[in-house]
Amino acid sequence: MLIEDATVEALVAALEENPRGLLVANDELSSWLGSMGRYNGTAAADESFFLKAYGGRSHSVSRRSGRSIHVRSAACWITGTIQPGVLQRALGVERRESGLLARLLLAHPPRRPKQWTTDSIGWATREDFVRVMEGLYGLRHELVDGRQESQVVRLSMAAEELFVAFYERHGRELIELTGDLAAAWSKLEETAGRLALIFHEARLAAGERINSGEIDAATMAAAIELVGWFKHETRRVYRLLAETAEDRATRQSGERLEVFVAGQGGTVAVRDVIAGVRSIEDAEQAEEALQRLVEAGRGRWIERRTTDKGGRPTRVFSLKAAGVSAQPPKTSAKTSCADADTRREAEPETQEYIEI
Asked: Tell me: the pLDDT tens digits for 127-138?
């Protein structure tokens, strides 16, 4: 069952009727974080519920009507987006120390210039997706003495070997970490198993002929690879959460410049930046901004030799390959430019989101 916004009391009531769990989907997760304690004045109690929900633990609540509700497995998943600054303010010391931050899988991929496309999702893909979702919805608990019990899915020997190697490698990483990252790494360890189970059931729902009661090596390898990506994203987001206002302004300026360079084909001269980026007024500012991208590993300087006709040697900035646009270079004047810089001016910084 999918719920957009609800109090903890309402979630518990819904869980009583949906023992397989709930998905709480919010376009703006600030409403979810802000709702804790909004109605009962006890944010700690609401937070405690979501900490339990992460592990699918039992939860009881006494309703105002006098009827008590007990949920054996309060499995509740949260998804949505939030602005970095809002997340930074919402996750104070107490919520970090309680482990709430560590339980969130965070993603904040770098911004890329928008490109028009007429591509669409084919009907075969749509039908495959519907079939997989129907298969997943069709999963049922085992009935033992009239009670619903979870089915046990084991690891194959090959999958277990992969997980053991990941577990030990992950442990060596964890021992070197402290604070928020250490807390996040302690949860990412078990995330590999959770993702492997999701992938396993999705493959079954897609009609693959695999052992329904055993996770194979291919599934475990895919889960471990995805955890590696989440580790990278966790480090990126935690750096954002540690930023000062000045740090954030500098980073966002660099991201706008990177999008602009990508829109020019991935290579620009200093004069192109002066002409196309409104916030940069002279060559010194342009070179400093491009140099920051170089130091961040987002590009490099390329020296251009003089031609047979003479002239002074010049150098241009080349963006890292992943950020190069497929469009041909073009330089627009400030008076009529419609590049990434002016587009970001029209879109306030609230357009920068972290996905959870």
From this structure: 999 999 999 988
Using an 8 Å Cβ cutoff, are 326 and 266 in contact? no
Number of neighbouring beta carbons within 10 Å of residue 53: 25
Identify the CA nearest to 200 among candidates 239, 238, 141, 159.
Answer: 159
- 284-324 pLDDT per residue, tens: 888 889 988 888 888 999 987 766 665 566 789 998 865 33
CA dist 256 and 339 (Å) reads: 10
- Report the mean per-residue pLDDT for the chain: 82
* Integer angstrom CA distances of residue 100 from 36, 55, 105, 186: 12, 12, 11, 13
Question: Which residues are within 8 A (CB) of 58 and not within 5 positions of it... i.e. 6 or more apart?
Answer: 52, 70, 71, 72, 73, 74
* Sign of the CA dihedral running 76, 81, 84, 89: negative
**8 A C-beta contact, residue 355 and residue 106:** yes
Q: Where are the domains of the chain?
A: 2-82, 123-241, 249-344
For residue 39, which amino acid is it?
Answer: Y
DSSP string computed for 43-91? HHHHHHHHHHHHTT--EEEE-TTS-EEEES---EEEEEEE-HHHHHHHS
* Residues 188, 226: Cα–Cα separation, whole Å: 10
The reported pTM is 0.71
**Residues 6 or more apart whose Cβ sits within 8 Å of residue 51:** 98, 99, 100, 103
Tokens linked to 161: 């070997």
CATH of 249-344, one of 3.30.565.10, 1.10.10.10, 1.20.1420.30, 1.10.4160.10: 1.10.10.10
Residue 351: which pLDDT band, with cuts at 50, 70 and 90? low
Q: Is the pLDDT of residue 71 over 50?
A: yes
